[in-house]
Input
Amino acid sequence: MVIDDETALDPKKKEMMMFAKPNGYVASIITLDKALENFRANKYEGQRIFILAKTPYVFLRLIQAGVPIEELMIGATDLLNEGIKLSNRAFITEQQAQECRQIHELGTRIIVQHAPSVTPTDLFKIIH
Output
């Protein structure tokens, strides 16, 4: 599941994202409001869902709405060489760091790992 308002509301971007979906998997690209509505309606009851989003804010909103997220992985980001460096492929803004702190306070573990071959690092060993 991709939760991103910009992509979900742009048919061309949405179509391009669907090309990246692996065969045999169901994918959806929806707005944050639609995701919250679907989770509140228990639409995903009993399913394992892999969620992709551009910012930690999306996950913060989901967790605040009661969606259980045990672990969050920050991989590669759109921000490069700006803000707080998490890895060679991931940077976050101070606002995003604050959102990560809130997510952590709500009980979700956050790791930084841009590829399976890279050892995951706890975010809070990088930022404080």
Summary: The longest strand covers residues 71-74.
